[in-house]
Amino acid sequence: MTFENTLEFAQKLDTQDQLNKYQNEFIFPKVNGKKVIYFTGNSLGLQPKRTKSYVDEVMNDWANLAVEGHFYSEKPWWDYHERFANPLSKIVGALPSEVTVMNTLTVNLHLLMVSFYRPTKTRYKIICEEKAFPSDQYMFQSQVHFRGYKPEDAIVEIKRREGEHNIRLEDVLAKIEEVGDELALVLIGGVNYYTGQVFDMKTITEAGHKTGAKVGWDMAHAAGNIKLELHDWNVDFAAWCSYKYMNSGPGNASGCFIHEKHHNNSELPRFAGWWGHNKERRFKMEPTFDPIHGADGWQISNLPVLSLAPYLASVEMFDEIGMDALITKRDTITSYLEFILHEIDKEVDRTFEIITPSNPAERASQLSVLLHGEGRSLFDYLMENGVITDWREPNVIRLAPVPLYCSFEDIYNFGQILKAGIQG
């Protein structure tokens, strides 16, 4: 497609957009009395309008039924989480039995590492990417300390080459082969939070398994954003938060994937709890843990239904739309944003450097832009003029044109605001 930097062209793209109507499904903050241009769905998605009714339903059931809501509400709390299995499995490319919801992201990664990071005297190293999200870095450090190793010995970071912003696939594969028989676990963010780089999860998973290691993925910026085939890729485990691209609300519940090949492995350790016990026998209060078959067997505690309600509202919207339609728009609107940035770059006396890969196969709903010659004041100008975006030191803004609620007109208007901020 040949793009144009005009309002008329952007509006034409919106009229052709099959997902354009979904903007009306969301609540937008306002700045100076106008609806904002919202580019931070990679941090916290907007609130869907339908969310309130899902939460109100739980509140009303609690008021009217009290404890009986566990069994007699329209969506009984007892099995509320089971409603996620089918829609979530489609979002992440899994079998329904391979996904569940529980806890929050880093908690779940810690719990999954109990099962899948099983170091020995000779095989104890973890491979991760350089500049992983800090929570992952802290998790790795504390996990290896807990197991009796030193982080500098057990954690192997794959680094970017000098002068490059992204990690090359061949360097990932080379490092996996180099660590070889000492490698216990590969655990990388499927989409790097800083640059927006999408990793080749299928190829990396195959390489990790070839050495005898387990392979897991932090899907915080991937779930609801990119096409995933976790089952077919033979991924051992994965976890993701729901409040970014899946719009479930601040700090909300996490999703988990455990491949079915591990479901019958009674030797696999896990931290157990009552809610993961055999559902039919749970209230017999038996002294010995008998896990539910499937990912639900990794649950520990009674689930927070009030937190799950907004998440259910969102996954049902995803189920209506389908990932293929989302990704089609995602690719077009991200490319249009890239085009607009390059056009504005020609019109001003500053230089933008997009550090997200230009190859559409290696990026999703995010462009990270290095603003040469600009500082925090430009970010502040954008925020004050209704563009909600994200600042990362030293001078990077992250722009996430989420296809569910961003329009092509938003992209054009952003370009005009950006130009005015630089020229002003």
UniProtKB/TrEMBL annotation:
Residues 90-250 form the Aminotransferase class V domain. It holds the Pfam family Aminotran_5. Its EC number is 3.7.1.3. GO terms for molecular function: kynureninase activity. Its cofactor is pyridoxal 5'-phosphate. InterPro entries: Aminotrans_V_dom (IPR000192), Kynureninase (IPR010111), PyrdxlP-dep_Trfase (IPR015424), PyrdxlP-dep_Trfase_major (IPR015421), PyrdxlP-dep_Trfase_small (IPR015422). Keywords: Hydrolase, Pyridine nucleotide biosynthesis, Pyridoxal phosphate. Pathway: Amino-acid degradation; L-kynurenine degradation; L-alanine and anthranilate from L-kynurenine: step 1/1; Cofactor biosynthesis; NAD(+) biosynthesis; quinolinate from L-kynurenine: step 2/3. Gene3D superfamilies: Aspartate Aminotransferase, domain 1 (3.90.1150.10), Type I PLP-dependent aspartate aminotransferase-like (Major domain) (3.40.640.10). It catalyses: 3-hydroxy-L-kynurenine + H2O = 3-hydroxyanthranilate + L-alanine + H(+); L-kynurenine + H2O = anthranilate + L-alanine + H(+). Pyridoxal 5'-phosphate binds at residues 105-106, 133-136, 218, 221, 243, 274, 302. The modification N6-(pyridoxal phosphate)lysine is found at residue 244. HAMAP family: Kynureninase (MF_01970). Homodimer. Belongs to the kynureninase family. Catalyzes the cleavage of L-kynurenine (L-Kyn) and L-3-hydroxykynurenine (L-3OHKyn) into anthranilic acid (AA) and 3-hydroxyanthranilic acid (3-OHAA), respectively. This is Kynureninase.
